[in-house]
């Protein structure tokens, strides 16, 4: 086959990329189109990728817009019901985003805390307890 190193009888007609049966994520695929590949590379380098503050702000802005439409005055009841349904959905979405961001911040704080003093404190405690546990004659020989 043209452009391939195998003939059509030995794998040249096999589906490629997302059409292949063994396709999983495409993360390491050479068949990833150029635009998504560039966006993927940009996202991998983004240090704030897991931060959800922007998404919470976006949900808040949309919710304020919907509430403004509702409070604009009497109008079509069906439109008002749809707006309230959207607001309720946004409230739930906001709750999930805030909870996820809170968990991320707590985990980040714990990682920072565990990286500093506790390692030295744990080491000192281990040394102290091992000295207490050793028999006297072993301590005198050392």
What Rg do the Cα atoms give? 29 Å
Overall structural class, as computed from helix and strand content, comes to: mainly alpha
Sequence of secondary-structure elements? HHHHHH
Summarize the amount of helix as a percent range: 55-70%
Task: Count the domains.
Answer: 2
Mean pLDDT: 77
The largest pleated sheet is described as: none
List segments where confidence is low: pLDDT < 50 over at least 5 consecutive residues.
Answer: none
Range of strand content:
under 5%
Shape from CA axes?
flat
Distance between the termini: 76 Å
- Please work out how many helical segments DSSP would assign: 6
Give me the count of strands: 0
Written account of the structure:
- With 142 residues, the chain is an all-alpha fold.
- The protein folds into 2 domains: 1-49, no CATH class; 50-142.
- Helix content is 68%, strand content 0%.
- It has helices spanning 8-12, 34-45, 53-70, 77-114, 117-133, 136-141.
- The longest helix has 38 residues, at 77-114.
- The radius of gyration is 29 Å and the shape is flat.
In short:
The protein is 68% helix and 0% strand. The chain is mainly alpha-helical. Helix 3 runs antiparallel to helix 4.
């Amino acid at each position: 086959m043209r452009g391939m190193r195998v003939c059509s009888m030995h794998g040249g007609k096999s589906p490629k990329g997302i059409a292949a049966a063994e396709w999983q994520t495409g993360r390491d695929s050479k068949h990833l189109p150029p635009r998504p590949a560039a966006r993927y590379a940009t996202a991998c380098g983004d240090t704030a990728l897991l931060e959800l503050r922007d998404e919470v702000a976006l949900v808040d802005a949309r919710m304020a817009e919907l509430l403004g439409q509702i409070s604009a005055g009497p109008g079509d009841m069906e439109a008002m019901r749809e707006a309230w349904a959207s607001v309720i959905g946004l409230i739930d979405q906001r709750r999930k985003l805030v909870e996820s961001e809170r968990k991320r911040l707590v985990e980040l704080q714990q990682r920072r805390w565990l990286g500093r003093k506790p390692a030295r404190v744990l080491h000192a405690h281990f040394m102290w307890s091992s000295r207490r546990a050793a028999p006297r004659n072993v301590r005198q020989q050392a």
